[in-house]
Design a protein that fits this description.
The chain is an alpha+beta fold and 114 residues long. The chain has a single domain, classed as 60s Ribosomal Protein L30, Chain: A. The longest helix has 19 residues. The chain is globular, with a radius of gyration of 14 Å. The two termini are 15 Å apart.
Length: 114
C-alpha cells in the first residue's frame, strides 16, 4: 500500500512505500533569505516531513540538491554541514538548475528509509 501525505491536485509532499519515504522537492518558505537561510528552511521542512513518516535524517538514503547559482554553494554547504549528523552523511548530488521561482535559491529532494 502506498501512503501519501499532503495530497494536492499536482503532487503529494511525501509518499511512503515498502519501508521507503520519498519526499517531493522541498523549497524555502521565505525566499528573501540568502542561500544559507533558504537551505536551513528547507532542511527544517525535511526534518518535519521525515518525523511525520516516523523516521529522521539519520536514515536518509539519497539527497538531490538543486541550486540556482553555484556561487551560493558555500552557503548551502554551511547549512548542510551544520544539519547532517556525523557518521550519517548520505549520498548526495548537487546540480545547478533554474528553479520554478526565480527567488528560490535551493530545492532538495530526499529519499529515506523508515
Amino acid at each position: 500500500m502506498v501512503q501519501r501525505f499532503d495530497v494536492g491536485p499536482r503532487l503529494s509532499e511525501m509518499a511512503v512505500y515498502n519501508g521507503t519515504v520519498y519526499l517531493a522537492g522541498q523549497v524555502p518558505s521565505d525566499a528573501t533569505q540568502d542561500a544559507q537561510g533558504q537551505t536551513q528552511q528547507v532542511l527544517a521542512a525535511i526534518d518535519a516531513l521525515l518525523a511525520r513518516a516516523g523516521t529522521d535524517k539519520t536514515r536518509i538514503l539519497m539527497a538531490q540538491i538543486f541550486i540556482a547559482d553555484l556561487a551560493d554553494f558555500p552557503g548551502l554547504n554551511a547549512a548542510w554541514d551544520a544539519w547532517v549528523p556525523a557518521g550519517h552523511t548520505p549520498p548526495r548530488a548537487t546540480v545547478e538548475a533554474r528553479l520554478a521561482k526565480p527567488e528560490w535559491k535551493v530545492e532538495i529532494v530526499v529519499t529515506a528509509a523508515l
